[in-house]
Inverse folding.
């Protein structure tokens, strides 16, 4: 009916290209369990190949315009980085036990090196990621990372931590705007104020959860005082006290952890929307529409499944979370998605990548 | 399949074929050759299969093909006589019976490794460690404790000497251990053993005891911690746990899983309880050897529990303070010490010498 009013000659200037995730929990579970077993049997050596396969699995199942992403890293290179990192961390752990002073020196050195390691990791990751045989790149010089790091540390110290929303914005800006896809630079238009606002909402939520927790403890303590009188048992009978405290801990602690998920889901959904939603790749923009309530449902479901399965539901949880996040992500294409590869390779180093993988360095932006 | 030349993010439909002479050709829809290099099968590299995802291939140049026709690719590999490793791995990853069996094995193996593997390995390392190295671990701990929580003892020198003499008698059979007794106060009735052989006794515990032999029973337990190198072992077990948690859980925080630390706390508590039992065994043997009735241990432990007025849940700072009484009920799994009554039963029922 309405078709006759449209002009077929004009191609749309912009079109929505959704991110489509096609991974399945069952398929990933089988890959994951083989990864775990082979990594254990080879005393961790296979973990480099396991990492490649896991990444590759999630990349290939993440499709834009009908083509999946590709993770190109060479497992041998991942392995080398891992060996170096394990040796370094091993030395640190040994020092912690035997020589606390040298340990502190080691930790300080590690902290001084961390901006360089982080940049190396970002470069490696970007360089090994491709779509339609065009690679991503991360171009920031290490010196810039050090300047930024110094500013972030300085601001945090001077403001006693109150500048954290702003330093987080600085860091996100650094990561987002220094990436490229082929010859197309990324840019980021999220304003510091948006992240500050997010914190203004999140911090009271967090405090409310802690307040509830302490009120709960007070109630239990009061109950503990009153109960012996009610039940007519001896006051301060250790056995009764024990029962009360045990019951309260068994019910209360998991509830507390579950409650902490509420502000966390709020923060991560909003942060992802700000981080990805503020991004442009060349002329194209990105839309991220994660919802607090939906993400919370995903988190709580994952938490329950992981606890009940003693961790075996991990692949299911990971697929579920990835599927949700990507279902809320859209590339808004302004013109055709054809991009030139740009000029040649740069030096990459798997060490930084391994560092992140062991969780020693944290690249987590909170989404 | 689609061919991406690596210059632009734009694919062309293509066909890869292997002829009777084992030469490859890569052509577009119009029959034009896309990559003149793509002739010799030796240069062809196909990414191993992964689930039912598309597979990519290249000839060492910048171009890259992508195909979802997994059967055709497997047939090509088969004709070329390679790729068997990747196919074997993919077969392993595609079978549910194998996956479920491995899942069950990992779960059981993981629990067994935590229950026996980690403590066993920590013990072997602690035993193999040179004495002076083992005793150096945590050597600065006393200084740290003194500047934070501990206060100087108010006991009179004569009283200290009296207790020290008894301590040395107990310690006599273990003259290889650098054992020294120190007196402090400020943390309630308690006793600690530090890895370097320093044993601390608080004034509050001295006051609580009704007989010096009760104190010697506690000290025997502490010597047990030093003898078995529980300080070193706690450190090693803790390190092994944190590595395990990092490796196994990896990006657990990413899944919004704040509870990731719970299993580690549980395991650490179990390790600590095993050490307490081992130190109790040692105390029993030492007391019998020294001619002190083990019943004194039961007496002082019960007095401690009564004085604490129930379970004591203050955090364990040095890892080896045995005189904390412990919670019953489900919470006992998270406590650093086993339930007091279970511990003292065998001491309390020790036959009285005539």
């Amino acid at each position: 009916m309405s078709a006759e009013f449209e002009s077929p000659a004009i191609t749309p200037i912009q079109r929505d290209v959704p991110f489509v995730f096609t991974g399945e929990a069952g398929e990933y579970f089988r890959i994951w369990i083989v990864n775990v077993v082979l990594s254990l049997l080879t005393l961790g050596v296979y973990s480099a190949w396991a990492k490649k396969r896991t990444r590759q699995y999630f990349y290939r199942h993440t499709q834009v315009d009908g083509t999946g992403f590709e993770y190109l890293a060479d497992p041998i290179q991942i392995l080398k980085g891992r060996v170096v990192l394990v040796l370094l961390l091993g030395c640190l752990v040994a020092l912690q036990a035997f020589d606390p002073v040298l340990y502190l020196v080691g930790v300080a050195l590690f902290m001084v090196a961390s901006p360089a390691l982080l940049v190396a990791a970002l470069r490696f990751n970007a360089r090994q990621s491709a779509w339609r045989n065009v690679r991503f790149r991360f171009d920031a010089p290490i010196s810039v990372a050090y300047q930024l790091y110094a500013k972030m540390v300085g601001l945090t110290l001077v403001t006693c931590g109150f500048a954290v929303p702003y330093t987080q914005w600085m860091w996100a800006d650094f990561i987002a705007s220094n990436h490229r896809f082929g010859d197309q630079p990324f840019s980021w238009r999220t304003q510091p104020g948006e992240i500050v606002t997010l914190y203004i909402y999140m911090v009271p939520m967090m405090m409310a959860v802690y307040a509830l927790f302490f009120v709960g403890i007070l109630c239990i303590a009061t109950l503990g005082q009153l109960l012996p009188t009610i039940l007519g048992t001896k006051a301060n009978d250790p056995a009764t006290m024990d029962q009360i405290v045990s019951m309260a801990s068994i019910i209360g602690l998991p509830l507390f952890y579950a409650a902490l998920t509420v502000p966390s889901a709020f923060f991560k959904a909003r942060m992802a929307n700000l981080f990805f939603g503020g991004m442009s790749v060349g002329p194209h923009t990105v839309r991220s529409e994660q919802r607090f309530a939906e993400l919370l449902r995903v988190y709580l479901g994952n938490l329950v499944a992981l606890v009940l399965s003693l961790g075996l539901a991990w692949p299911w949880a990971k697929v579920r979370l990835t599927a949700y996040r990507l279902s809320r992500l859209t590339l808004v294409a302004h013109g055709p998605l054809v991009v030139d590869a740009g000029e040649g390779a740069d030096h990459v180093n798997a060490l930084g990548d391994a560092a992140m993988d062991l969780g020693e360095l944290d690249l987590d932006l909170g989404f | 399949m689609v061919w991406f030349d690596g210059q632009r993010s734009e694919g062309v439909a293509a066909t890869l074929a292997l002829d009777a002479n084992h030469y490859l050709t890569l052509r577009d829809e119009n029959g034009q050759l896309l990559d003149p290099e793509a002739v010799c099968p030796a240069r062809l590299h196909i990414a191993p299969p992964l689930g039912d995802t598309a597979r990519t291939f290249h000839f060492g140049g910048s171009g890259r093909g992508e195909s979802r026709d997994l059967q055709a690719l497997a047939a090509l590999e088969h004709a070329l006589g390679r790729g068997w490793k990747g196919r074997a791995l993919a077969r392993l990853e595609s079978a549910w019976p194998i996956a479920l069996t491995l899942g069950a094995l990992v779960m059981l193996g993981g629990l067994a490794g935590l229950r026996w593997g980690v403590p066993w390995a920590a013990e072997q390392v602690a035993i193999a460690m040179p004495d002076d190295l083992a005793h150096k671990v945590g050597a600065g701990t006393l200084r740290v404790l003194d500047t934070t929580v501990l206060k100087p003892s108010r006991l009179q020198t004569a009283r200290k000497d009296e207790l020290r003499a008894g301590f040395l008698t107990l310690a006599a059979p273990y003259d290889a251990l650098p054992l020294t007794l120190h007196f402090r106060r400020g943390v309630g009735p308690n006793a600690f053993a530090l890895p370097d052989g320093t044993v601390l006794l608080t004034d509050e515990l001295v006051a609580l005891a009704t007989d010096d032999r009760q104190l010697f029973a506690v000290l025997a337990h502490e010597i047990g911690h030093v003898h078995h190198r529980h300080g070193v072992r706690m450190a090693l077990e803790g390190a092994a746990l944190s590595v395990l948690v990092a490796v196994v859980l990896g990006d657990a925080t990413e899944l919004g899983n704040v509870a990731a630390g719970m299993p580690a706390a549980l395991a650490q508590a179990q390790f600590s309880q095993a050490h307490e039992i081992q130190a109790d065994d040692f105390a029993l043997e030492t007391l019998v050897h020294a001619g002190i009735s083990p019943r004194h241990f039961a007496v002082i432990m019960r007095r401690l529990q009564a004085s604490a007025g129930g379970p004591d849940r203050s955090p364990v700072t040095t890892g080896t303070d045995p005189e904390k009484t412990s919670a019953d009920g489900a919470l006992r799994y998270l406590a650093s010490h086993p339930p007091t009554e279970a511990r003292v039963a065998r001491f309390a029922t020790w036959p009285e010498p005539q």
User: Anything to note?
Assistant: Chain A is about 65% helix and 15% strand.
